[in-house]
Amino acid sequence: MDSHLPHVFAPGARIGVLTTEPVGLLDYLAPEGGVALGQLVVVPLGPRRVMGAVWGPGQGHFDAARLRPVARLIDAQPLTPGMIEFLDRAADYTLTPLPVMLRMALRAPDLDRPPAERRVIHRAGPAPARLTDARAAVLRVIDDHGGAGFAPSELAQLAGVGVSVVRGLVAAGTLVETAAPVDMPFPRLDASLPGKALDADQSAAVQALRAGIRGGAYGTTLLRGVTGSGKTEVYLEAVAETLRQGRQALVLLPEIALSAEFLDRVETRFGARPGEWHSGITRTERRRLWHMAGRGEVGLVVGARSALFLPFRDLGLIVVDEEHDSSYKQDETVYYNARDMAVLRASIEQAQVVLASATPSVESWVNAGSGPGGGKYARLDLRARYGDAELPQMGAIDLREEEMPSGRWISPTLAAAVDQRLGRGEQALLFLNRRGYAPITTCRACGHQVGCDDCDARMVEHRFQKRLVCHQCGATKPVPTACPACGVEGRMAAVGPGVERLGEEVAARFPDARAVVLSSDLFTSARAIKDTIARIAGGEADIIIGTQLVAKGHNFPLLTLVGVIDADLGLQGADLRAAERSFQLMRQVAGRAGRFGGDAGGRRGLALLQTHQPDHPVIRAILSGDDEAFWDAEAAQRRAAQMPPFSRLAGIILSHPDQPVVEAYAAELARRAAPLRQIGAELFGPAPAPIARVRARYRVRMLIRAPRQAPVQAAISAWLAGAPKAPANLRLSVDIDPQSFL
Ligand code: ADP
Ligand code: ZN
């Protein structure tokens, strides 16, 4: 957005309005009283009325006589010029139509309706004498949310009870119902409260970040340090500085629904809770946060990736915690990586970005390095765990040398280590990144493996749900007793381990231990997961069996042993990112093993990797603890292969119910790739996508590799603009910077 553009348009002026409809930008006349740039409006579109935002001066597409005026203004803070520029550039970067991008930014319910008065429930008095489970659940929700003020039905829903339970508590005087404005400001975070006394590395990091924030210009910093090194403590100080400057801060977390611990830490540090933005919040909370972000009435937002599209009034800091995490990449509707979009947004807002990780992505490692391609980001290192806490000792269990009866996955060596922990009242975590009971259901008579009807994927048995489930499309079917192929009865068998099956082995092998399986399938809500995690942290379990759900950010103080059941699981893929991903996951899960007794002494944590290939470079890198050597080697490999970040990639996925149709169209596109060649890009494929059929659609993939500085988006646009008309029902999506390099 050019700074000389007017920010207010006079009545009757020709303005460009970006609607949320596929038509995109259209010209209208500014209404009586004029209108501000970024103002949300309702405009006529044919016989309909649609929502839009004032995007700039009119483009002159129509004669003035045919123009219609804006119908009315929406009562919300106008989008800032920075937000408009961000959406424009994010749309260009990701090759997303602008109206779709605008919809990402307008994800607040009932924007075009005035705020209705709302009845809300507050805590009033002590709990009633007769405290049923249902009543207790309601009180827990409201106490957890520190007076957020829920509508009665929302409160009931969150607590998983009927609304009559809430009414009963109102009648008993424990809760009170009042009228409240829908959109009330968030409690102010107090940045003048003292933080913790920092150690030398932390102080140096905080100094550097503070200087950046005070400078009021853009900058990105990679904050690296092992789990427990105090990164969170450091970036909370960056948040404090941002608040003191009167600007807003955003912290992105990969598993936001599980971030109870983080919210508590914010409350301890700043005396109030931040705004929360993720799929688990209610419509009312969503609406409130959206409006308060725009008015500058929320200082800190903690959110999932989509929080990046909130209309902040003055965003001064974006923290991307666990910046390497793959959940930051959205692979539907709009393909974007929140980490990269955070950098884009910050560069527009003159804000600072902190990318925090124990195991950064190779891209960020290169960007923050001093080698080729480096120097774009600053780098700060926290070299040790905070205090006396040490990293766990690492060891491999060579499965070729272990006695492993079929149907058993816990080696005698690992079992002995578990027994030792149990004897000392400590916890053990067994990690297996496979949901369900068994990955394969096969017929012992004919060898048939049960697959999904609509996808090229095996069905995975989930014994807890008593069904087979397709992990691609979610389809389920009953576990067959007879083989669907040969019809023989009673010979179907589960092959291979999933976490549920590992749970059975644990129950048989350690009958006296209290075991918990932590896998997303076994819980009906984020709240249930949170509760279980809290109970584990409180010592109510001895053995935890988990998928990657347990790898992230939970502190289990009694946990001193981590056993990785199948360290080879992620190593085999042909994907260039396979090594990086396995390394990150194993390093992270190993980091859960702490020191028993905390800083006060005691025993060091231990992580044991069960593997058939103890000499694999990834396993050796994990065991040696020399992470920097690993990242350098990965970066060198990427450079030699001319892969990102030393080149740019874009993935094109085409799909259609008929295989010949999609193949023919893809081949035609490939023949017309001259615009790509003009920028020096190469086109690989078309080839069947890694999973060639999903939801009954055949998928064909092409991969474009371009030199690092080449205008790849413009070339792709030109290429697709010159394509022949697509057959009906063909879908084409472009994924800039795809996660998978296959
Ligand atoms: P990370 O984010 O790197 O995993 P955290 O910031 O969560 O590390 O710190 C790990 C633990 O050490 C937390 O319990 C935290 O409260 C504590 N801690 C970190 N720094 C300090 C400090 N300067 N003073 C006291 N406790 C600290
Ligand atoms: Zn399927």
From TrEMBL:
Binding partners and assembly: Component of the replication restart primosome.
Family: Belongs to the helicase family. PriA subfamily.
Protein name: Replication restart protein PriA
Cofactor binding note of this UniProt entry: Binds 2 zinc ions per subunit.
Organism: Paracoccus sphaerophysae
Keyword Kinase included in the entry's annotation: no
Coiled coil ranges: none
Keywords from the UniProt entry: ATP-binding, DNA replication, DNA-binding, Helicase, Hydrolase, Isomerase, Metal-binding, Nucleotide-binding, Primosome, Zinc
Gene3D superfamilies, sorted: P-loop containing nucleotide triphosphate hydrolases, PriA, 3(prime) DNA-binding domain
A Gene Ontology cellular-component term: primosome complex
EC number: 5.6.2.4
Domain Helicase ATP-binding span(s) in chain numbering: 212-378
